[in-house]
Specification:
With 433 residues, this protein is an alpha/beta fold. It has two domains: 2-135 and 344-428, FAD/NAD(P)-binding domain, CATH 3.50.50; 138-338, no CATH class. The chain has nine helices and 22 strands. The strands form six sheets. Strands 1, 2, 3, 4, 5, 6, 19 and 22 form an eight-stranded mixed sheet that branches. A hairpin with a 2-residue loop joins strand 11 and strand 12 (208-209). Helix 1 packs parallel to helix 3 and helix 1 crosses helix 9 (388-410). The two termini are 22 Å apart. The structure holds flavin-adenine dinucleotide (FAD). Flavin-adenine dinucleotide (FAD) binds at residues 10-16, 33-36, 40-41, 46, 50, 52-54, 59, 100-101, 130-134, 176, 348, 376, 386-388, 391. Keywords: Oxidoreductase. InterPro entries: Auxin_biosynth/cation_transpt, FAD/NAD-bd_sf. One of its GO terms (molecular function) is flavin adenine dinucleotide binding. This is FAD-dependent oxidoreductase.
Length: 433
């Protein structure tokens, strides 16, 4: 079956939905295709106990509040997925689930793209790649297969019962690594946590959540620094939300170690950078307190003092005298969980929109290949781009760009004689969740 749409949005996560809302607002016909279910990654690619990192009043789209959750509470991953299903219904998003895009190629000698899907070919004038900021688990090739009974990426971790008995090495101390390590420790496991460079904002300060502080201080809107990658932010909404404090994790029995550097003879070696990484994280934490205090003073806000937030306490023994080698057998380590981030996979997108390293070439999501757009990538336009609220704003810009381009393309074209008109297939335009 040959189908035609004006704009094809690939991916039915939050980015695809935001795109659909803004395209509809611009009067642009479109279709969203999702290979699984709406917001699938929240449903099946994250651990069981995960909750949002930001409170419900913040981590949402402007047009819909979470139902049945205190605005200051943290939605569970299932509640987030349900929220996006409800959102798709609310905006009447034209989504087809269970359809995977397998290839996109530029039409030869005429506008648009030929899109191959698991459900036939679609001709699209514009294509928006909304397939996620965190698509493919990345595990650095340090510890060979078979060195421990189980090595998994954080995206495959579900709960402590999934792991064989014994100690666990968690590599990576962003939001995922610290939360998984804390959960494993709480379940009674011996846990080693490998800590690299990170930002560590306070969960809240002087009565305001860090999401609020990043907002009023203009940090969510910080523009993309040259060559910026995703910044590891250690923050947690677990158990009602709390500041990630490595001293506290150590006091709870988690053995902190430096960056995981190499492996040989059954032994993992760690860089001697633990103290430096903790100190830099502390400096990031304190600098936000300083900026918050200055903002309060400058604007005469009446927010309660919180001097105890500045009491960091002494460094734990594992930081002052860091472990540089861990024999996995002697340490009883049976599992390694790599909370080491994600890459992207655009192997289906055969267009001239990538640099020599395979990274998307774009400006605010407008790619180097006219007609192709990216959405949801870290730092697409600003720090908030890969987060729930941020993608909504980026989608507005991309939709506006598409609308403008359609205006140019329509100039001088006689609708009656154009043989290349794109007509949305009526049967495609319905929500299927
Ligand atoms: C552990 C974790 C916790 C996070 N917590 C928060 C948080 O608390 N707050 C926050 O704001 N952000 C959070 N994020 C960041 C971000 O909000 C999520 O990663 C979010 O899932 C990104 O949404 P997206 O729509 O851009 O991409 P995705 O959710 O990845 O959606 C992309 C969709 O595209 C589909 N797809 C992919 N390829 C194809 C194809 N070829 N054809 C058809 N469909 C395809 C996928 O199935 C998927 O459903 C978190 C991220 C992680 C990893």
């Amino acid at each position: 079956m040959r189908q035609a749409v004006e704009v094809l949005v690939v991916g039915g996560g939050q980015a695809g939905l935001a795109m659909s809302e803004h395209l509809a607002d611009c009067g642009v016909p479109h279709l969203v295709v999702e290979r699984h279910r709406v917001a699938e990654r929240w449903r099946s690619e994250r651990w069981d106990s995960l909750v949002a990192n930001g409170p419900a009043w913040h981590d949402r789209f402007p047009g819909l509040e979470f139902f049945g959750i205190d605005p200051d509470a943290f939605a569970s991953k299932e509640q987030i997925a349900d929220y996006f299903v409800a959102y798709a219904e609310k905006i009447g998003a034209p989504i087809r689930c269970g359809v995977e895009v397998t290839s996109v190629r530029k039409n030869a000698g005429r506008p648009g793209f030929r899109v191959e899907t698991s459900d036939g070919t679609i001709n699209a004038r514009f294509v928006v790649a909304a397939t996620g900021p965190f698509q493919v688990p990345v595990i650095p090739p340090i510890v060979p297969d078979g060195a421990v009974p189980l090595q998994i990426h954080s995206s495959a971790y579900r709960n402590p019962a999934q792991l064989p008995g014994g100690a666990v090495l968690v590599v990576g101390a962003g939001s995922s690594g610290v939360q998984i390590a804390a959960e494993l420790r709480q379940s009674g496991r011996r846990v080693y946590l490998s800590v690299g460079p990170h930002d560590r904002p306070p969960r809240s300060y002087r009565g305001r959540d860090f999401c609020w502080w990043l907002g009023v201080l203009g940090k969510w809107d910080a523009e993309t620094p040259q060559g910026a990658e995703h910044v590891t932010i250690a923050v947690s909404g677990a158990h009602g939300g709390h500041t990630v404090d490595f001293r506290d994790l150590a006091a709870r029995g988690i053995h902190l170690v430096g960056l995981t550097a190499s492996f040989g003879n059954g032994t993992v070696r760690f860089s001697p950078d633990l103290g430096e990484n903790i100190a830099n994280g502390d400096a990031n934490y304190v600098s936000l307190l300083d900026e918050a205090d200055a903002y309060i003073a400058r604007n005469g806000l009446d927010l309660p003092e919180e001097p105890e937030a500045r009491l960091l306490g002494p460094e734990p023994e594992c930081v002052t005298n860091p472990l540089l080698e861990l024999d996995l057998t002697d340490g009883g380590v049976t599992s390694i969980i790599w909370a080491t981030g994600f890459g992207t996979d655009y192997s289906w997108l055969h267009v001239d929109a990538f640099d020599e390293n395979g990274k998307p070439k774009h400006r605010r999501g407008v790619s180097a290949e006219p007609g192709v757009y990216f959405l949801g990538l870290p730092w697409l336009s600003r720090r908030g781009s890969s987060f729930i609220w941020g993608v909504w704003h980026d989608a507005k810009y991309v939709a506006g760009h598409i609308k403008t381009q359609r205006g140019y393309l329509a100039y001088g074209i006689d609708d009656e004689t154009s043989g290349d008109q794109i007509r949305p297939a009526a049967d495609l335009l319905k929500v299927v969740t």
